[in-house]
Design brief:
- It is a single chain.
- This protein has helices at 34-42, 50-60, 75-89, 107-120, 138-145, 155-163, 180-185, 189-198; strands at 100-103, 128-131, 150-153, 174-177.
- The protein is an alpha/beta fold.
- The chain has a 4-stranded parallel sheet, sandwiched between helices.
- Bound molecules: adenosine monophosphate.
- The site of adenosine monophosphate has 12 residues, from helix 3.
Length: 201
């Protein structure tokens, strides 16, 4: 809990450290579907980490969230679990459409995040894939053409494929900017803005 900068910005802010009540929570208290809890249990997790205990209810409540936590604190599950919960309980507006988009600064992180989504979502009907630059486009294009619920992407490759009309972001319900600070440090601000412009208002 020591590293929780909660930077200023839009979206719901988590309480400042002095206002935080530390309650050792159980995963069962988070209102997640049994299929998600089963996957979490199989990962060997016994209790949510502080960022998970604080972030998951906010996301499930439908709020925007800006959260900061160090690597290794369970932040990936912190956004993935409620995202899977929301997607699995809401009907898709259009079959095969991309419903959630996760942007990451690097291909390594993109691959890791998608692996986590697969693990936590293994007992759900949702599908996911990952796209990044530096590798052939065709397998990525073919996978997206088959329909995918959750897309994890680095900004450059996402915009390339969107520019070639292989990606439709008009049905995206949930956007995650993972390691947003690093994305900005790496000069992705213009790409991120272009992606935002492609999402439904
Ligand atoms: P992250 O900070 O998202 O990179 O996660 C760091 C590591 O913590 C990963 O190896 C996760 O598998 C693990 N992890 C995530 N949530 C929990 C949890 N609630 N209990 C134990 N380990 C966890």
């Amino acid at each position: 809990l020591h590293n929780w900068p909660a930077p200023a910005g839009t979206g719901q802010q988590l309480p400042a450290p002095r206002d935080r009540c530390i309650h050792l929570m159980n995963f069962d208290e988070l209102n997640l579907a049994p299929a998600i809890l089963r996957a979490v249990q199989e990962q060997g997790y016994t209790a949510p980490t502080p960022i998970q205990a604080q972030a998951i209810p906010v996301v499930l409540g439908g709020h925007d969230l800006l959260a900061g936590a160090q690597t290794g604190t369970g932040k990936t599950a912190g956004f993935t679990l409620p995202m899977l919960q929301l997607l699995s309980t809401r009907p898709a507006a259009k079959a095969g459409a991309i419903r959630a988009l996760v942007l990451t600064p690097t291909r390594e992180l993109a691959a890791q995040v998608e692996e986590a989504i697969r693990a936590y979502g293994q007992y759900l009907e949702l599908t996911s894939t990952v796209i990044f630059g530096g590798v052939g486009m065709n397998p990525q294009i073919n996978r997206i053409a088959r329909g995918v619920d959750i897309l994890v992407a680095t900004p450059g490759r996402l915009l390339d494929l969107e520019g070639q009309n292989h990606i439709d972001l008009s049905h995206v319900e949930i956007l995650v900017l993972d390691e947003a600070d690093r994305m900005l440090d790496m000069g992705f601000i213009h790409d991120v803005k272009k992606v935002l412009a492609l999402l439904p208002k």
